[in-house]
Amino acid sequence: SLRQSAVSVPRDFEGCSTLRKYLGQLHFLHSRVPMGQGHEAAVPVTWTEIFSGKAVTHEDIKYEQACVLYNLGALHSMLGAMDKRVSEECAAGAFTYLRDHFPHSYSVDMSHQILSLNINLMLGQAQECLLEKSMLDNRKSFLVARISAQVVDYYKEACRALENSETASLLGKIQKDWKKLVQMKIYYFAAVAHLHMGKQAEEQQKFGERVIYFQSALDKLNEAIKLAKGQPETVQEALRFTMDVIGGKYNSAKKDNDFIYHEAVPALDTLQSVKGAPLVKALPVNPTDPAVTGPDIFAKLVPMAAHEASSLYSEEKAKLLRDVMAKIEAKNEVLDQFMDSMQLDPETVDNLDMYSHIPPVLMEKCAALSVRPDTVRNLVQSMQGLYPLYPPGGLGEAGLDSLCPPGGLAVPPGWGRQGCPSPCPLDVPVCHLALAPSVSLWWGLARREQSKLALSGDRGDTGWPIQGPAPQVPPRGVPADPRHPPDPTPPPDDKQVLQNLKRILAKVQEMRDQRASLEQQLREMIQKDDITTSLVTTDRSEMKKLFEEQLKKYDQLKVYLEQNLAAQENVLKALTDANVKYAAVRKALAEVEHKWNTTVQTLVASYEAYEDLMKKSQEGKDFYTDLEGKAAKLLERARAACQASEAHRQQLLERELKKQPPPRPTAPKPPLQKKPLDEAGGPEAAEL
């Protein structure tokens, strides 16, 4: 169907699209099926030669492609002749591709000389369009002269092809007409080029050069007029108009120089020649461009050679990835070792954020205290509840001290210290050490974080107003020193050091992230890179070249990675310098952190000591209350036992007195004094 459309193609841009599509599908077919000259699936292909009208047949599918390409170039030239001269695109692309990629022995109209003639004719006419546009846009005279000179160069190349004997014999009478027309164009556009060189000399006030350029332009135009005999009236009219312009310019320039400037007129060959400026471009031809060929109708036919070539290409991709990854891993290893040796964590390089809020464990204790405004009063009352259980009148600090022997105190089970033979209701050193932090340290934090701790209000005769000074409870052996959290704010110089270090650490992380991102992009790009379709339509001899072209798509990523890896040395050097300045700051920050943690631990410990003290004081109170009750019962029992024993002893004594004879009278003795029952029963009770 495509071939039928291509043979009778319409003369419009739709016809160009049909030819391009058929050309592409022929290329796809040829890459899969052996239809070349002498191959197993070759079929005869017949076309008519353009000049002789003879039918030419070849059993080679490339001949079919060559004929389609020739017709594509011819159709482009026809459309260009019908179109307005506003574009520099031309039909030379098809002829150039045909000349460079196909044999020249198929037919005489595809010989090297004929194709070169067509190419230069197309390029020359396209350059004419650009020249006309430049003149209408009033471009600089020198640029217009160079564009016109390039038109001359293209037509000179075409004229050489026309003068070839083979071309002359092939074209016949057409050769003479074309040669005459091309020579006329050569002289005409040379005249235009020298006209604008004369204008440039006039702008530069080189009046002698202006005369010779205008004279040369006039001479060349006269030659063009001689060769223009038999040309259409439009050509004759254009030549006459040009003669009026150049003739007028020459006469005026010669007159001005003869009567005003009197500059010497140099010879034309002594002046610098005008070099052409090739600004036109041929329409590119890509037989496998999917935009013009459409879907590959042979896509499912993938030869084994294409699979093999795809495997080779995959190995090339893997080699590229291995080379890149080796460089990345080497740099990453150096970076990791360096960062480990520095022991720099961007998240905790200054630890200043930890001071912006109270630790959760401390907040928990603060919350517990905030709902108990009478904390110290309750503690004192709990302690005072123990005092009546001992020497009458209660025990103050001196009384407590009097109960503490040098060797230590005996405490109820679970209080932590054992071994003193004398029972004591309270461990006095523990009391002092626990009470001091709960008063002084909590007070220091309360003054700093009133809103969070909610330690406010008057505490009566056992407390203090929060606005006043903290009470001093001197612990045994510990000087009274209210403690407060340290101020973590570094001085301005240290802040600058920290900011610089953070900035460089951020650069290190940015470098890491960019490197990882580029690596991931490279891996994904390699994973998605499948050129099997291109391999199917590529000749085996062109595989290596195709691999090189396809691998160029990774060059940009490789450049980015190389820049990233090269930047590491400078970044690490800057980080080393910043770390040297950071050493002193790090030490100061470590000390502040240690003090902060110590303060927090002390505050938490004081709360826990308070809780433990309240618990143990209550346990002690319960213990001694129970002990007092048991002792009272024991005392009653002891008294009863003593009384019973005394009564029994009296009975026995009376019985003995009755049995014994009356004693002999002796000197009178003082009567026995009876001791009180409490004193008499004391030893026995103690003994019991």
UniProtKB/TrEMBL annotation:
Q: State where composition is biased (Basic and acidic residues).
A: 481-496, 646-659
Matching InterPro entries: ALIX_V_dom (IPR025304), BRO1_dom (IPR004328), BRO1_sf (IPR038499)
State where the protein is found. Cytoplasm; Endosome
Domain BRO1, chain residue ranges per copy: 1-335
Main localization (coarse):
cytoplasm
Which PROSITE patterns does the UniProt entry name for this protein? BRO1 (PS51180)
In terms of SMART domains, this protein maps to: BRO1
Which Gene3D superfamilies does the UniProt entry name for this protein?
alix/aip1 in complex with the ypdl late domain (1.20.120.560), alix/aip1 like domains (1.25.40.280)
Q: Which GO terms describe its cellular component?
A: endosome
Q: Which residues form a coiled coil?
A: 501-528
Q: Where is the composition biased (Pro residues)?
A: 660-673
Keyword annotations from UniProtKB, A to Z: Coiled coil, Cytoplasm, Endosome
Q: Name one Pfam family in it.
A: BRO1
> Quick one: where's region Disordered?
454-496, 645-688
> Per its record, how is this protein called by name?
PTN23 phosphatase
- What is the organism field in this record? Motacilla alba (White wagtail)
Q: What is the name of the gene encoding this protein?
A: Ptpn23
